[in-house]
Input
Amino acid sequence: MSLEFLLTSLIVVVTPGAGVLYTMAAGLSRGGRASVVAAFGCTLGIVPHMVAAITGLAALLHASAVAFQVIKYLGVAYLLYMAWSTLREQGALRVERDTAPRPALRVIASGVLVNILNPKLTIFFLAFLPQFVTAGEPSALLRMVELSAVFMLMTFVVFIGYGLFAAAIRNHVISRPKVLSWMRRTFAAAFVALGARLALADR
Output
């Protein structure tokens, strides 16, 4: 495993995106356990992109403008839905003192959707992974699976860090309604901004 791969992956993972926002929102709204579950869901959402890149489906997505646009706008719609739900206090950032657990499958499903509806992630895997596989390597497929697994593990660990940080400041947020209101607006605006960026993305 090259240092270049690890550093590049770390930069990509640490850069805040929809998955980070969702995981932090889970930590703020329901605490540490929920943030870990959310991080798992977001990480699980990487699997389809990994499979697509390894099997060559990403190349088809890259070549087909229609397929790319359909997935892209589904992702945009979901991010806008997340923003709308957050503002209505019914979405990811619904913060209450009662930390009754939200169904884990629901949290995981939302996390999976956050990442799975992003065609840029598939294209990223298509362009990123092959750079670290030696041409003519007999076990190239196994090598790509190994690299993908490391990327997913790094994603899971980093997202948990973001989520637990959010959970740690949860009580401070709950005790300050104005702060909570501004954070809700900030998260909603961030989801809208990510949706806009995805809408403007080219293949």
Notes: Residues 18-199 form one domain. The chain has a mean pLDDT of 78. Residues 140-168 form the longest helix (29 residues).
